[in-house]
Amino acid sequence: MNVPLLDLKAQYAPLRSDLLDAVTRVADSQQFIMGPEVEAFEREIALVTDTTYALGVSSGTDALLLALMALDIGPGDEVVTSTFSFFATAGCIARVGAKPVLVDIDPETFNIDPVAAARACTRRTKALLPVHLFGQSADMSAILALADEFKLKVIEDAAQAIGTREHGGVVGGIGHIGCFSFFPSKNLGGFGDGGLVSTNNHELARRMRLLRNHGQEPKYYHHLIGGNFRLDALQAAVLRVKLPHLAGWTEARRANAARYRKLFAEADVPEITLPVDRGGDGYHIYNQFVIRAPRREELRAHLTAAGIGTEVYYPVPFHLQQCFAHLNYKAGDFPHAEKAAAEVLALPIYPELTDGQQAYVVDRIRAFYRE
Ligand SMILES: *Cc1c(COP(=O)(O)O)cnc(C)c1O
User: Fold this and answer.
1) CATH no. for 8-103+110-244
2) Which of 66, 112, 181 to mutate to test ligand 1, by most ligand atoms within 8 A of the CB atom?
3) pLDDT number for residue 168
4) 166, 197, 314, 350: least CB-packed within 10 angstroms?
5) What residues does each domain of the chain span?
6) CATH assignment of 246-370, given 3.90.1150.10, 3.40.640.10, 3.30.1360.120, 2.60.120.10?
7) Quick one: CA torsion of 160, 163, 169, 171, rounded to 10 degrees?
8) Cβ(183) to ligand 1 under 6 A?
9) Which pLDDT tens digit goes with each residue over 146-185?
10) CA of 288 to the centre of ligand 1 (A)
11) Residue 102: its pLDDT value, please?
12) Which of 89, 67, 93 is nearest to 79 (CA)?
């Protein structure tokens, strides 16, 4: 049996003619930059992010950059974030000239530890940048309380968390700005790169709209120094076809997560630790299903040989990355993140995964620890 980590062709097949129609529609219009497809997509997705404003941008990375620029964060400022995420989270803070101040994670959820975040705040702290890693919300009530106390802005890295809920709110609209990605492996993926910023704040929306397009309004009259952070009309058209299916795909991912829990309980593999789903009024969208596994590299090789795709998100926390050596962190500074980096393994969780494939994955993991 073959079980890839992600099977985009399985999602594409039933939507193929709708997707190609959408691409043809844009090709026939020859309108590739902004225009009606992007505007329609922004209206439609604002209902999913539950925000007044949703602006399509060129990638999740550019969404983060744009958010930091809109909040005027730069040299002399500090932004507190988790040391355990995809590189863009910390990379963008450094790119605007601010200092990423890294903190450890809650070992249960892999998300930023709010107590550690509070300890990291100084007079120079301007913003908190929590990540909703793997599709589960960070502890936003604690983050908001902290932001209130120190008068900080909150940028949510919701790249892996479209539709994730907590405290009756949808992530991306809980803080000041939410940042999303449509990279093909995210729950809502385009035919290439794309992203989104969301906010309920009119002034921030206005600034981000300007900054997305070189700060010009009208054309060639520049109010701010922005960039080209626009979402392609082609991507917007593709995403509009996929958007009505997102809720169903998310439910399928959640059902797959529940099935893994049942299968692992039956198989009795005490060696591995399953991801914690805080449940309650939270809603985990399972962009990834990440277990902790002893002898991870060996297990991974064993699964690869059995035709099962896995991935390590992420093998090196930010504080141990070479490009951040100047921040002067050292091994041992953030033990929970370092332990996670050594143990985590993402299993296939995509919506079209079958019962048989999941049973096979669990059986092969059981066999690894029993043999
Ligand atoms: C994917 C991702 C990003 C970046 O998104 P791109 O669209 O790939 O630029 C940022 N943060 C996190 C947590 C991500 O998973």
Assistant:
1) 3.40.640.10
2) 181
3) 75
4) 314
5) 8-103+110-244, 246-370
6) 3.90.1150.10
7) 20
8) yes
9) 999 999 999 999 999 999 999 779 999 999 999 999 999 9
10) 13
11) 98
12) 93
Total length of the chain: 371
Distance 360 CA to ligand 1 centre (A): 30
Question: What are the contacts of 9-18 at 24+ separation with CB within 8 A?
Answer: 10/350, 10/352, 11/249, 11/350, 11/351, 11/352, 15/241, 15/242, 15/245, 18/241
Single-letter residue type at 172: G
Q: What distance in Å separates the CA atoms of residue 62 and residue 73, rounded to the nearest whole number?
A: 15
In 10 A of CB 215, how many CB atoms? 17
pLDDT at 301 (0 to 100): 98
Q: Of 296, 274, 239, nearest to 349 (Cα)? A: 274
CA 314 → CA 20, 29, 55, 340, distances in Å? Answer: 35, 42, 29, 8
Low-confidence ranges of the chain (pLDDT < 50): none
Give the tokens for residue 62. 């550019």
Phi-psi domain of 94 (left: phi exceeds 0; alpha: psi -120 through 50; beta: other): alpha
